[in-house]
Every structure is written in structure tokens, then in C-alpha cells.
Amino acid sequence: MLPRPPAHPPRLAAILRPRIGLVFGGLLCYRIALAASYSASRVPHPTLLLAAALDSTHDQAGNNISVNLVVASVAADNLAWTSHFPNSNINLIRYISDDPTAPYHPPAPKGREALMYLTYLNDFYDDLPDLSIFIHADEIQWHIEGTLLRNLSFALTQLDFQQVLDREYFNLRATWRAACPAWINTTKTFDDPDPKPEEPYMKEAWMGNFGPEDPVPETMGGPCCSQFAVSRTAIRRRPREQYARSQDWLLQTDWDDFTSGRVWEHLWPKLFKDVASDCEFRERYSLCQMYRLCFKSEEALVVYNDLWEEIERLKEQLNFFRATWAPGKARVARRRLWEVNAETEAQLRTAWELGSDANARADMLNLVHT
Q1: I need a surface site. Which of 11, 31, 217, 290 has the fewest CB within 10 A?
Q2: How far apart (Å, rounded) are the C-alpha atoms in residues 160 and 286?
Q3: 307 with 211, same domain?
Q4: Is residue 10 situated within a structural domain?
């Protein structure tokens, strides 16, 4: 009779198994720690941000233009970043959609930022500053372009308030991408192939806010995202009843918040300028005129934007899970990210320095406009 095999694993396997587990566990922990360090890496522009904040050539700190910074927010938003502006003429008006006890709040948590903005326009109609700037609560956001570092503090610090007064209405987003010259077709219906989410609703929204007697345009254009600056003159060009009417329309509509807020992204030019398209000025011109960022050529702006898109792709490679799976690729991506960051900062600083020189800026604007 053959002997039975031992009931316990061989001694070597018993010894190696926990050690192999420790090795793999250690490697996994190493990869996780490495991925965490990569995904936590930030690519700041400290030199440019600090220079812009301290720029003594900016005349905004000494001008007399009064500004209300109207922020659409929820109670959980942190607005500490708004306390760092050098301009003491900026008055913060924070609307909180989900707190009916807040000093400023909409009648109901509907319509996203649109209802908060319209509530402000109705509430403050008789007590408006020279400019009202309407923004979302986040300092870092994709609604602001890479030419403005995706940084709302930087954008507002650079913004030329006098130029805004002269234009009367200015969308803080300057790019024409997915915006101009004709982005929305109001004749689209749900039966059409692949309409943009808001297109089938635009005709009804137009008539509901401005009346059936106001002809609905076939196409509409302009930068997205409902962040803009508008003068007291432009606001009062319409009677207060218009803002109350649009407020009521948002309160009464049975559309979801995404839709009712989204259609209003395209209605602000009509409200303040009585136009369907806000595509008068190209991106390069607006950056120079409104933000004091003057790229020497259209090609220079294209190169900068291409580099910024590369930054966004590299950041995706530094995502925690991707970096855990492929730490070698993440290491290369991080190295390239810092290289591209240096390139974009150098190019943007050149544009910033050119825009900070009043004479050079005027010459550039004449050149771009022609």
C-alpha cells in the first residue's frame, strides 16, 4: 500500500507564499503611493499669477468704477478665494440657491445660475453699480479658457473694467469654439438627428421670455457658460418687468434644471444687447482688449491653445488609476507636463507683458482689428 501524501503543503511553498504576498503587496503599495504623488501634482503658474496680482501698471486698483460681483452658489461652496482681489471697489453679492435663510437667495432652487442672476437683476434694479459681474462659485473651472489659466481670480484681475463699460456686455469666455458664429439652430426638433440638448427648447424659451411677437432667429451664437459682465446702462435698457417676467418663467417651467438653465446660456446677449449672436469680436482681439493678454499673431494663440490641450491630455494620464496601472507612463507624462507648463507660462507671460504696455496694446488692437 502506497503512503498517503502529507496533509500539509510542502515546506518550501509554506515559506514562499507569505513572502511572495509581501513582495506583491509592497509593489502594489509602491505603485499606489507613486500614483498618488503623480495625481496630486499641480501645475501652477506662480510667477504669472503673482505678477498679475501685484501689477502696478494696472489702473483698476485706482479707478472709480463700482462693481458688484454676483456669485451663483450653493451653501457648501467655499468662496475664500474672492477675498484676494486688489480692487477695493468690488462688492461681493453671494446668492445661495439651497438656503432660503441666506441674505441673497432665489425664490426657489430652480434654473441653476439663471434664476439667481435674474433675481439679482430684479432685486437690485434701482441700486445697481457701474458694473455687475456674474460668475459661478469655483475659482478653478473649465468654463474659463487656458489662456486665462482656467483661473477665475486671474481672469477677473486681468479684466479691464473700462473696456467692459464701453462694450456694455461682455461674456467672460472669449473663445469661439463651440460658440460662433452659429452654434444653435432654433428650428431643430427632437425628431432631427442629434440635436444639441437645448436646441429643441430654444424657440419656446425665446417666446416665453421675450414674447411671441419677437421673431425667433433661426440661428444663435456666442460663448457658453453664463459668466459675464454687464453695465448698469445695458441692464436698464430693459424695464424691470422683463427681469420679473423671466424670473417667473423659470419658476413656472416644468423643464428640468439642466434644460432651463442651459437655454439661458444663449439668451443673455438677447437680454442685454437685443441680438441673437454675440460673435462680434474674435478670441485674440477680446483677450487683448478685455484681458490685456496680447498674442503677437493668430498662430501664436493657436500654438498656445494646442499646448494647453496637451496639458489636459497629460493630466488624464496622471489620473490616479491610470498612474497605478502604468507608473512608467505617468512618470513620463509628469515630466512632459512640467515642460509644457513652462512653455505655456513663457508664451502667456509674453502676451501679458505686451498687454501691460498701453501703447503696445493699442498698436496690437489696431493691427488685429484690421
Answers
A1: 11
A2: 11
A3: no
A4: no
